[in-house]
Amino acid sequence: MDGRENYLDYVANRPGVKALGEHGLWDAHGKVPSLENAVAEVARHTGNVWTPVISLSRENAERLGYTDLKNWQDLINASITDIAKGYKIHPDRLRWYAAMHEKEKHIHVHMVLFSTDPKEGYLSRQGIRSIKSVLVSTIYRNDRLHIYEQKDEQRGLLLQEAEARMTTLIGQMAAGNSSNASESTAITDAMTGVTGFCQEMRQSFEVITELLDKLENNNNDITKIANQTNLLSLNASIEAARAGAAGRGFAVVAGEIKNLSENSRTTANDSNDNKNEISQAIGKLLEESDHLAEIIRDVDERMTNLAASTEEIAASTDSVKEISSDLKDKAAELKSM
Q: What is the per-residue DSSP string for 204-240?
């Protein structure tokens, strides 16, 4: 039994495997009916056989639903055409097997893939990047959509409330049925409401700032782990080479460690892409802040025509202007990050 047979049997039965009966091996059609036939197929193959690993931290796996085998199967099946493209294998000739494993701190899937044409298949650095980009984008898509939906809903409600308050304010100013003192009180109350709205907008920016900081910290942690893991893989490979035939199993583990290191580094790079998308969302908030400033300027012009309580109204307007200016500055600062 050579290394390929050992490896396929290993991923199908290793501790922590998500078993589907007597073993944990599956393919595009679900559970592999015969592990022995799959092992024999890989052993007979005379071309290259690749063994990639797709891994998530347990925290992210639980949050995104990847403690469920079916979600991993759906992910691989949805991405398999892009995976084939990354390996420069025609999708009709791609053969693959996979198994899901649960560890204390992470959950991952081992894959074994090859082409039915022994001469076909080549994996470049660009191919690795493209495959990882597709997988990361698919894994985190729902997460990003959920964040954006929450922000869009919150932003829409805040804008509706502001417009309603400003409409009420303008209506009170246009009617002129009350005394100047009563008008002043109404305007002051309305401007207080707008001030509250602006403060809520400020809190929204602070939430986004915390999200960006968290992404940056995650990137730094992932990069450090990837560098340390890569060094461990190098040391393991050297020790396996020294051990000769006895070190083959050790070499398999070293290869897994190296794959995990590369996956971690790519995750950090794709996190930067997520950060750029969030910056675009901040740009939208900045545009809406400008719109709010225009509304406030219009109210300011109307209030200057009132004959009474001018100083009190002006003070309220200046307060709202200051908060709006702070919002614009913060948005510009976040957008430049």
A: HHHHHHHHHHHHHHHHHHHHHHHHHHHHHHHHHHHHH
